[in-house]
Amino acid sequence: xxxxxxxxxxxxxxxxRKLLLRDSITFLTxxxxxxxxxxxxxxxxxxxxxxxxxxxxRWSQRGExxxxxxxxxxxxxxxxxxxxxxxxxxxxxLLLAQALANDGRTDEAxxxxxxxxxxxxxxxxxxxxxxxxxxxxxxxxxxxxxxRASIFGAWQGDAITRRxxxxxxxxxxxxxxxxxxxxxxxxxxxxxxxxxxAASDLTLAEMFEQSGDPDNAYTYYRKYGARPEPRxxx
Length: 234
Hints:
It comes from Granulicella tundricola (strain ATCC BAA-1859 / DSM 23138 / MP5ACTX9). Keywords: Membrane, Plasmid, Repeat, TPR repeat, Transmembrane, Transmembrane helix. The chain is 77% helix and 0% strand. It is mainly alpha-helical. The chain has a domain at 157-228: Serine Threonine Protein Phosphatase 5, Tetratricopeptide repeat (Alpha Horseshoe). α2 (72-85) packs antiparallel against α3, α3 (90-102) packs antiparallel against α4 (106-119) and α8 packs antiparallel against α9 (198-210). The longest helix has 58 residues, at 11-68. The protein starts with 10 loop residues before the first helix and ends in a 9-residue tail after the last helix.
């Protein structure tokens, strides 16, 4: 009698296969659910972060506009709102420091700028703001040091022009402090890289006169007076 070549699997083996198939389907289903949940969570997170970023920008723009319009108290509120959405955003923090300074809240503004100074000690603008705040507090030596650090600091854009402007501001402050020899020294340096314009001639003439340097004052007054009348307005 011939034997059937087809082997019939025992019931236990069939049950094991069914169990493995069911477990595989369950695993794949759970994995698919996990992937879907991960995708949804990631999408929601990015959407939330994008919304926070947009809100921060809107509040900061309102704050910057308030500063430009001479409303520093409103700017402070707006910029603090912006920082709730982006607490580590340095441009927002710098705007807030500026608003605090404009609102006469010198100590708070100084605290912000000092924190920036620790991170960016060579930043020309930060040193300039600290110099101006030191002037308000009446600490002359500190103000002069910050002015000089600003002059030799790093500037974005036209660094030569910004340094010259800061040097002239320092010279004016030294005149106010009756430090006339120091003021004259700063003016002589500034005059060496000042553009050849009527406005520059008049500014230097007046400042040299205030610093007790009549010879240089006369030179620049004469230069200004020698210009054609229409050019004196520029």
